[in-house]
Amino acid sequence: MSTRKYFSEFGLHVASSYVYLTQQDELANDAIGPTHIYLICRRPRITLDPHSVHVSADVITGEFLIHLAEERTRIPFRAANLLGETELTLDCPYPHARYALLDRTGSPVAGGKVGLLFQHIQGGEHSEADLEVLYVGQSFGHAGERTAPKRLEAHSTLQAIYSDLMIENPDHEVWLVFMQFDEYQLASFDGSIGEYQTTEKEDQHHVDRVMDGEVSLQQTINFTEAALIRYFQPAYNKVYKHSFPNPAHSTYAECYDLDLNGISFEIDTGPIRLRLWSEKIERSWLHLGTFPLHSADDRRAMFDLSHLVDDSDGAS
After folding, report:
1. N-to-C CA span, the chain
2. Same domain, residue pair 65 and 103
């Protein structure tokens, strides 16, 4: 294991501050908000059995249907009737993926996609609401504008995923997750080692460079996308799955120019009441990824505290 290069080591961390769930037919919706990063995901199709829905003054009950191959799993629900109406009629035509509750005049008082209703009522209780990450992408406009929804309106990979699902997994449907991230600077000051690859003067020069410099928004988005791809290993991504981080990549070269130690990300999908997963990563509400920018042979990672372990107690 190599020594620490600097007494003062720095890194960059991004954390999701905004997460929005939708589907392709809603991409023009202004409610999506400005985002750079998007995930293309899938999960079993969720519909509503319209014959199971009953409305009373206090509660609305019914059953969702989870489509898995030729099987249909019924999940009953019971929700408080907060609509102020008791004489409601359900409008849920085939394929029963959209619903509307109509009052006595035929005017809708509630409605939307059944999949979102399932999450609102059952999210966190059933794994069927969770999303498998198939692709991670980003979009960055010429002036830095967040244009991810616009880009997906005509996205070849998205269309390929739809095509593959229609043929191989017609029991599944595609969902899109849009994310905005906040950026934080990480710092680590470790005087316990006593041996560094640089002098005090060089360390102070490093501190000044990091404090005076910055990583551009474009490059921050670039390394966030790359880190998510490396972490989830999505089936439809090709670049970065096995080659991140790499000093040869110019798309986040500013991190190396500032001689940063590492970069990391954090995703919290609690606000949309589902967990993310992939073939390589287990389902979780919170995903954390940490990536040293240098090999362990060249430079110790900034939060590597293995040197503090007392070998006399048998730990390693």
Report:
1. 13
2. yes
